[in-house]
Amino acid sequence: MRKSTFLKLAGLAALTFTTSAAVAGTLDDVKKKGFVQCGTNTGLPGFAAPNDKGEWSGFDVDYCRAVASAIFGDKTKAKFTPLNAKERFTALQSGEIDILIRNTTWTISRDTSLGLEFAGVNYYDGQGFMVNSKKLPDIKSALQLSGASICVQAGTTTEMNMADYFKANKMEYNPVVFEKIEEANAAYDSGRCDAYTTDQSSLYGVRLSLSNPDDHMVLPEIISKEPFGVVVRQGDAQWADVARWVHNALLNAEEAGITQANVEEMKKSDSPEIKRLLGTEPETKIGVDLGLENDWVVKIIKNVGNYGEIFERNIGTGSPLKIARGINALWTKGGLQYGIPIR
Fold first, then answer.
1. Fewer CB atoms < 10 Å away: N or C end of the chain?
2. How far apart are CA 134 and CA 128, in angstroms?
3. Which tens digit of pLDDT belongs to each residue from 216-235?
């Protein structure tokens, strides 16, 4: 090999190593500062919303607390940065946040061109439409929205999906675009738009915040696939593993019947699968290899419960949103949620 070629290759290798090293070590950084900084929604009932005391709650919030629990054994070690749709990726890329858990759709362009990595799908959703059925009593389908003005948030896949849907069905429409979800909500509530479009789960949350929730109807059509993912920066395999396996632990715990109420008792189980999951298997190194303690799953379940418990209390039939599990049920119950084996 010629010397000049060798030097070029060596330089390229050094640059690659430097780039990888620059984004590596998030878990160590999080442990050092004593908390995990989670990027989340500015206010979406059921998923992420602060109360008047600034206390956060919701499905995405509990996912952040699960990550904090795995690392520290303390769910209060999660801090939240509210981000609109346009801000969320920049905040993660810049290191302002450690992890993004904010109803964010996993797409190829986001996965390959933004320097991001999706660690799993924590909620399968799809885009829908909502109308004021008191003002538009004859509208029962999105196919009747030709010529309508439609509120939509900027910087989202929602805008593109809506354009595709109306074009495919040869319909005209007038998009009324807003930077912040609060602005879109207020505009729709005031009657500025005939309809509102976003992820269907979000529509149920938005509906609760309107002046007269019972006047509004979510139309039946689902016009897109919206798999919401837990997102981290590319180039830090260990941190991506933590995010990925926290998600899988929540699913596997539900499938094994491990809950907040029985997790201590389940530690006595003779099941090899449960022993591996809860870190009681003799000489296990699963937690240590992940950069955590071997009882990391026990800490998660004690603090936030399993996937089903998180779902039910925040957005499920026992919550104000009353969303059925549907395709977010476990695979053993006809759904798509499938925990990768922990072994």
1. N
2. 19
3. 999 989 999 999 999 999 99
Q: What is the pTM of this model?
A: 0.84
CB 306 within 8 A of CB 258: yes
CA distance 125 to 133: 23
Q: Write the DSSP symbol of residue 339.
A: P
**Positions of the chain with pLDDT under 70:** 1-24
In the chain the first and final C-alpha atoms are separated, in Å, by: 45
Residue 46, H or E segment: none
By the 10 Å C-beta count (0-12 exposed, 13-18 middle, 19+ buried), 214 is classed as: exposed
| Token pair listed for 96 | 């302002």
Residue 86, pLDDT score: 87
Selection from 310, 339, 324 nearest residue 62 by Cα: 310
> At what angle are helices 296-304 and 59-72 packed, to 10 degrees?
140
Q: How far is CA 138 from the centre of its chain?
A: 35
Q: Which parts of the chain fold into alpha helices (H)?
A: 3-23, 26-33, 59-72, 88-94, 108-113, 157-168, 181-189, 200-209, 237-256, 263-266, 272-278, 286-289, 296-304, 307-314
Q: How far apart are CA 80 and CA 61, in angstroms?
A: 8
How many helices, marked H, and strands, marked E, lie in the chain?
Answer: 14, 12
Q: How many CB atoms lie within 10 A of CB 146?
A: 12
Tell me the pLDDT tens digit for each residue of 18-33: 334 444 599 999 999 9
CA distance 73 to 308: 20
- Single-letter amino acid, residue 304: V
Burial of 299 (0-12, 13-18, 19+ CB in 10 A): buried
Q: Which amino acid is at 251?
A: L
DSSP string, 154-208: TTSHHHHHHHHHHHHTT--EEEEEESSHHHHHHHHHTTSSSEEEEEHHHHHHHHH
List, in sequence order, every residue forming a beta bridge with 117; answer none if it has no partner.
232
